[in-house]
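Changelog note: in this version the structure field was regenerated for every chain. One regenerated record is shown below for reference.
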Amino acid sequence: MIHPDYPLGIDCEEMLVEEYDSNESTVIYNSDDDFDLSDSELSNDFELDSVVEDIFDTEEYFLDEDKINGSYYIGLPCLMKSPREWILQISVQPKTMLSNRFTDIMRYLVDYSVTRVRNPRMHIMKLDVSNTGAYNVILKTFWLKLIQRTWKRVFKERQDYIKRCKNPNSLLYRDTSGYWENRKAFPGLIGMLYKN
């Protein structure tokens, strides 16, 4: 659950929910323009529609089944205005996501979502089922981006380490002493997020 005064500036989009008459659907507005599916792209092209229908056929059972509390899901979240909570809108199985193109999966998620979505963005979410049965989620995509950025730095350090070890002076030093000149541990996953 998000505290009402908590700012949502953690590198994820802020979705606003606009409510209309009770007969109309809820419209979600996303402030980011990373992935834009306009109505022209959602045309009635038979080939694209058949791909989305094939995805629906494989996901039909998963779409209707109850979700497990504490499990991770890939899909579209929705930020409700009152109370300010992220809820699970629609999700897709990892097997289906990896066996189809990203644009086809996004078309499926938009076409079969509970509400109308503008500028959708897929997230990794951890499900937290509330006492009322609402599917609240905690967005985990931010941590994935943080690890990717950190791994990029560690990978560069690894390349520099290998380059220093290939130096003829370093090779000679290792041959005579039995250990590397810098005696620094090879950068890896362990301790990767620890900042010196």
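Spot check on this record: The longest strand covers residues 72-80. The two ends are 33 Å apart (CA to CA).
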